[in-house]
Design a protein that fits this description.
The complex is a heterodimer of chains A (about 260) and B (about 425). Chain A is α/β, with parallel strands linked by helices and about 260 residues long. Chain A is built from 8 helices and 12 strands. Chain A has helices spanning about 40-50, 70-75, 95-110, 115-130, 150-160, 180-190, 230-240, 240-245; strands at about 1-10, 15-25, 30-35, 55-60, 65, 80-85, 90-95, 140, 165-170, 195-200, 215-220, 225-230. In chain A, strands 6-9-10-3-11-12 form a 6-stranded mixed sheet, with helices on both faces. A 4-stranded antiparallel sheet of chain A has the order 2-1-4-5. A two-stranded antiparallel sheet of chain A has the order 7-8. The longest helix of chain A has 15 residues, at about 95-110. Chain A is globular and about 55 Å long. Chain A starts with a strand and ends in a 9-residue tail after the last helix. Mean pLDDT of chain A is about 90; it is low at about 250-255. With about 425 residues, chain B is α/β, with parallel strands linked by helices. Chain B contains 9 helices and 20 strands. In chain B, α2 runs antiparallel to α6 (about 140-150) and α7 (about 385-390) packs across α8. Chain B has helices spanning about 10-15, 25-40, 55-60, 115-120, 125-130, 140-150, 385-390, 395-410, 420-430, and strands at about 65, 90-95, 95, 110-115, 155-160, 165-175, 180-190, 195-205, 210-220, 225-235, 240-250, 255-260, 265-275, 280-290, 295-305, 310-320, 325-335, 340-350, 355-365, 370-380. The model of chain B has no long low-confidence stretch (mean pLDDT about 95). In chain B, strands 1, 4, 5, 7, 9, 11, 13, 15, 17 and 19 form a 10-stranded mixed sheet that branches. The radius of gyration of chain B is 21 Å and the shape is globular. Classes of the chains: A alpha/beta (about 260), B alpha/beta (about 425). Chains A and B meet through α2, β7, α3 and β8 of A and α7 and α8 of B.
Chain lengths: ~260, ~425
């Protein structure tokens, strides 16, 4: 589904990703762990197409297409979803209106019929059950005045509604208390399916207690330096990231 | 003092015959104003009030005065239809009253609505005071020009205690003519004690031909009167519109003004409001959206002259392409106007590197126990918000429109006419 090969990317002239390679198959959950400054968020931003990230070499192929050549909205329509580390507050734009505009824009690109407001509300009610989210949030402006937990739950709710094929969770656990973390994880687990892949970017092992990954990768210095199953996360928790640095040559790098 | 030869603009308007009313004081006044206009010419950017609005290009144009064919031009009523606006209607085409397009039958009890020329024919005396008012400022060239050349306009009066709920629709259409036209309209609007009025002033124009329209209005609210005034301007790219309104509020009178300036080439709107009676309140809300090469200038002057008066002004500017916006919001709290509460905010958005907005809030306070707040900002679209919307699949153009409309939304939130509000909100998402 997703094949990242030898990806190099710069932000403001500084090289952050230095030859990152990663393959994700349909239905798999990959956790990307790493210390601060390793390039975790850069990876999410590059994959979703944010301005200011310059890819200098390497490739990202998503279901056979060059993902990097697509505009952010085209990536979304193709099924890529980024749950933001810091969801943006947008005063004046109603959350429900925004979600319907987003869903219909994606459907239009895919040649599907747009949903009218009745059909959309029906869908919203179904998805609300998945996430424990108050429908009061739907009537407010996008993320405006939301608590940290509400913002993250709103991200997962959007994911439930938009039904992406590849969901990238960028430190969705940051700033959440344990109850909010469990709710977010429940939402993600409810969306796991053989067709949907997840890239779970996190600093801490904690989230992986609730979202069980198929693979764990350690990102350090802009490359995957270690890959393994979920026990790798536990080792990291026990030994810290310093252990990885001592642990020899990068494993995922292809020079 | 040597006077340069008058600009083509001034010369062309001096050629025009003055309208004649047969009313001695009025005809004398018109001659006087024309002479004063000819002597002073157009204001230039050295005058503070015109610092950001250059009239050089306008000064080089020649305009024919009035449209002899206006009475017979074919107009599609759809050109001025607005949802939620189905009350009495007065329509002017190229400055000429069109009875056939107007709706003046069965006016509600307490409403007098007719063309000014007709009101003058019936009885000029009640209008004499307002129309004789002296314009002392040098920069008031257009007001003088209007006083000299306006033969018609709107005469509207609401009797004391009458409540006119269905909005009165004033329509000013500019349509292409054989030559480039100038027309001038003078409005006199009065709400009696405790009267209420919903008013929609609507400027529209079609075609790309240049024309100039000036409008000067006096709006007087007697004690306890309530006015809801929506001013919607969606003129064509060739429209030059210069408007001046003087708004007078008596004790406990309330005026709420919503302004949408979307079209036009060179547009200037001056509102001078006097909160003259104790407890008077004025709320103004407005959006101006210059794009292309449009220039839209709003000049707001609010004078608190009595005890416990309040004004609240919320304005948004959005300039795209090479559009230019100008906003001046001047609030004066006069000596003795204790307990006044004045606030003004003007936030602006530049959507292109070549767009420009000049904003200038001014506050002068000469009274005690006054609450006053004012602020102005100029910024760009929030790139993070734009990316957030796009990352969810919303195409860039749509995302920009969504954010622009959201930025302006506060201006329409308290417009009571829901159907009109939704219609106008839709026009902001461009």
């Amino acid at each position: 589904m997703l094949k990242i090969e030898n990806l190099h990317a710069r932000v403001a002239g500084k090289e952050i990703l230095k030859g990152l390679s990663l393959s994700v198959n349909a239905g798999e959950v990959h956790a990307i762990m790493g210390p601060n400054g390793a390039g975790k968020s850069t990876l999410g931003n590059v994959l979703s197409g944010r301005d200011g990230y310059e890819v200098t070499s390497g490739s990202v192929t998503y279901n056979g297409v060059d993902l990097l050549a697509l505009e952010p909205e085209a990536r979304a329509a193709a099924g890529v979803f980024l749950a933001f580390q810091y969801p943006v507050e947008i005063p004046g734009v109603n959350n429900t209106y925004f979600l319907r505009a987003a869903l219909n824009a994606q459907r239009k690109v895919r040649g599907e019929k747009e949903l009218d407001s009745m059909q959309f509300l029906k869908l919203v009610r179904e998805k609300l059950k998945v996430m424990q989210i108050s429908d009061e949030l739907l009537h407010r402006a996008v993320n405006e005045g939301f608590s940290g937990g509400e913002k993250k739950r709103n991200e997962i709710f959007q994911m439930a509604l938009l039904e992406p094929k590849l969901a990238i969770l960028d430190e969705t656990d940051s700033g959440l208390d344990i109850d909010a973390l469990k709710q977010v994880a429940q939402g993600v687990n409810a969306l796991r399916s053989p067709e949907r892949s997840f890239l779970v970017i996190t600093h801490y092992q904690r989230l992986l207690d609730y979202i069980e990954p198929d693979f764990v990768h350690v990102l350090a210095g802009g490359r995957i330096v270690e890959s393994g199953d979920k026990t790798l996360a536990l080792k990291l928790e026990e030994h810290g990231y310093a252990w990885v640095r001592e642990h020899g040559e990068p494993a995922g790098a292809t020079a | 003092m040597s006077q340069p030869a008058p600009a083509p603009f001034v010369a062309s308007l001096l050629d025009a015959p003055l309208p004649t009313s047969g009313i001695a004081w009025l005809d004398a006044l018109r001659r006087e104003h024309l002479a004063a206009f000819a002597a002073a010419g157009l204001p230039d950017t050295r005058m503070e009030a015109w610092k950001y609005t250059a009239l050089r290009a306008l000064g080089q144009r020649r305009y024919a005065n009035g449209d002899a064919q206006a009475a017979t031009r074919a107009i599609d009523p759809a050109a001025f239809a607005l949802p939620g606006v189905d009350g009495p209607r007065l329509v002017f085409v190229n400055g000429v009253f069109r009875a056939d397009l107007s709706a003046l039958d069965a006016l509600p009890e307490g409403l007098a609505l007719q063309p000014l020329a007709q009101a003058l024919r019936q009885d000029p005396e009640p209008l004499r005071f307002v129309l004789s008012r002296h314009e002392p400022e040098r920069g008031d060239a257009f007001v003088r020009l209007n006083a000299a050349l306006a033969g018609d306009g709107v005469a509207l009066k609401v009797a004391a205690g009458a409540k006119i709920v269905a909005p009165v629709h004033l329509v000013f259409l500019g349509v292409p003519a054989e030559g480039e036209l100038a027309w001038h309209l003078r409005h006199v609007i009065e709400l009696g004690e405790g009267a209420e009025l919903a008013l929609v002033e609507h400027h529209a124009a079609g075609g790309e031909q240049q024309h100039l329209g000036t409008a000067v209005g006096d709006i007087t609210l007697r004690d306890g009167a309530v006015l809801h005034h929506t001013l919607f301007q969606n003129a064509a790219v060739g429209s030059n519109l210069i408007r001046r309104s003087r708004l007078h509020l008596g004790a406990r009178a309330q005026a709420m003004l919503h302004v949408l300036e979307l079209g036009g080439a060179l547009v200037r709107h001056e509102l001078r409001a006097e909160l003259a009676g104790d407890g008077a309140r004025l709320d103004t809300r407005g959006v101006f959206m210059p794009r292309g090469r449009q220039h839209i200038d709003t000049q707001l002057a609010i004078r608190h002259q009595a005890l416990d008066t309040a004004s609240d002004s919320v304005w948004r500017g959005v300039a795209d392409q090479r559009g230019r916006g100008v906003f001046r919001g001047a609030i004066l709290v006069a000596p003795g106007a204790d307990g006044s509460d004045a606030s003004l905010s003007n936030k602006n958005l530049l959507l292109s590197g070549q767009a420009e907005i000049d904003t200038k809030p001014e506050l002068e306070i000469y009274a005690d126990e006054v609450k006053a707040a004012h602020g102005a900002t100029v910024g760009q679209l929030d790139e993070r918000a734009l990316f957030y919307l796009r990352s969810r699949g919303i195409p860039q153009a749509e995302a920009r429109a969504l954010l622009t409309a959201a930025f302006c939304r506060a201006v329409l939130d308290d417009l009571p006419n829901a159907a009109l509000r939704e219609h106008l909100a839709g026009l902001l998402a461009v």
